[in-house]
Write a structure and sequence with these properties.
Helices cover 36% and strands 29% of the residues. The protein is an alpha+beta fold.
Length: 358
């Protein structure tokens, strides 16, 4: 017997309700299965932004918490603004007395030593006496010749003897400053800690230095004295990008700007030519090399990068002649847009290429 029209309407209404329930359940499951968490807070004296994508929101939250905890542990170990940090205690140790080091600090200092040697001393965290002489933590001052000479002689990482899990200060004026490498150490620790089942892309921005794993990231190269002016956009698949420059930081002493990046070889602020950006596989490398290569200057920095495959550099020079951007071919190759030509040893690049190792 044929079903009545009323029965057809009842069945149709029931199936529409079932389909609606299935659709809602699918949407809820999709939302739970893919999540991105962003956390903003203050760490190491600057802003920290952690962005994690994961299969589920709980996995993303847990990964972000691990990243933040890792950076906090690095800050407790390396911050010389803290009287109880391990690095502060090392700086206060008597000359000639071996100081036991934790495994993490021993690893930090071994990497610092490698980068100090690689840059011929242009990157040297043993500039604490110079920082004090120039008063960079107190608003700035101009030291006398004798004071400057004494501080420069003390500022030599070679005056720290490293032997496995111990360190010995060989000069009373040896004071280690973490400013040129601690952010990188924190970023490396954060990326490593964030790894886990279901975790996808992790991006950590610590005071402008970025590190990424698990997915590409686009970022801008900007004018040193006008950060609202974008010069190029690059696409980075992994690793870390750090930029150094004297344009926005420093102090005004006797009416003249004193840059915060010191040249350990002369004891004076490095020449303010603009800015220098480094891409490296590890954030500690990028952080330290951004400082050391800036100290070397534009030409020497690009020559250094050409002799060290695996490190990419962009130099932005800003003077009365205008802006000039030069880069290693590897960095120019990942430019996805440019407002000015990027010069390389292979000529000017218009900036529409995709890909490249970074």
């Amino acid at each position: 017997m044929a079903a009545s029209p009323a029965l057809y309407r009842a069945r149709s209404l029931r199936w529409r309700r079932i389909r609606l329930v299935i659709l809602l359940a699918g949407l809820i499951a999709a939302d739970a299965a893919a999540a991105e968490v962003e956390r903003r807070l203050f760490a190491m004296g600057t802003e920290l932004v952690v962005t994690v994508s994961a299969d589920t929101r709980p996995a993303a939250l847990a990964a972000s918490e691990r990243a933040v905890a890792a950076i906090a542990a690095v800050e407790r170990r390396l911050s010389t603004w803290r009287p109880d940090s391990e690095l502060t205690r090392l700086n206060a140790a008597p000359v000639g007395v071996p100081v036991p080091l934790s495994a993490p600090l021993a690893a930090d200092l071994a990497e610092v030593q490698r980068l100090w040697r690689a840059t011929g001393g242009a990157f040297d965290p043993a500039v604490g006496s110079l920082v004090r002489a120039w008063g960079l933590r107190e608003g700035g001052r101009r030291p006398g010749a004798a004071e400057l000479g004494e501080a420069r002689r003390a500022g030599d990482f070679g005056r720290l003897a490293l032997t496995g899990r111990s360190a010995t200060r060989l000069a009373a004026g040896l004071i280690l400053e973490e400013g040129g490498f601690a952010k990188g150490v924190g970023l490396d620790a954060a990326l490593e800690a964030a790894r886990g089942p279901g975790v996808g892309r992790v991006v950590v921005d610590l005071g402008g230095q970025l590190a990424v794993v698990g997915g590409a990231l686009e970022l801008d190269l900007v004018a040193p004295r006008d950060r609202s002016r974008r010069l190029a956009r690059v696409r980075v698949a992994s690793g870390s990008v750090a930029t150094s420059g004297n344009g926005e930081r420093g102090a005004i002493v006797d009416g003249a700007r004193v840059g915060h990046i010191l040249d350990p070889r002369t004891g004076r602020p490095a020449r303010d030519f603009g800015s220098l950006t480094v891409w490296a596989p590890a954030a500690t490398e990028a952080d330290a090399l951004a400082t050391g290569l800036y100290v070397l200057g534009p030409d020497a920095a690009l020559e250094w990068a050409a002799a060290h495959p695996g490190i990419e550099v962009a130099v932005v020079e800003d003077d009365v002649r205008g802006l000039r951007v030069r880069a290693t071919p590897g960095l120019a190759a990942i430019a996805v847009a440019t407002a000015v030509p990027i010069e390389t040893s292979h000529g000017a690049v218009a900036g529409r290429a995709q890909g490249g190792r970074p």
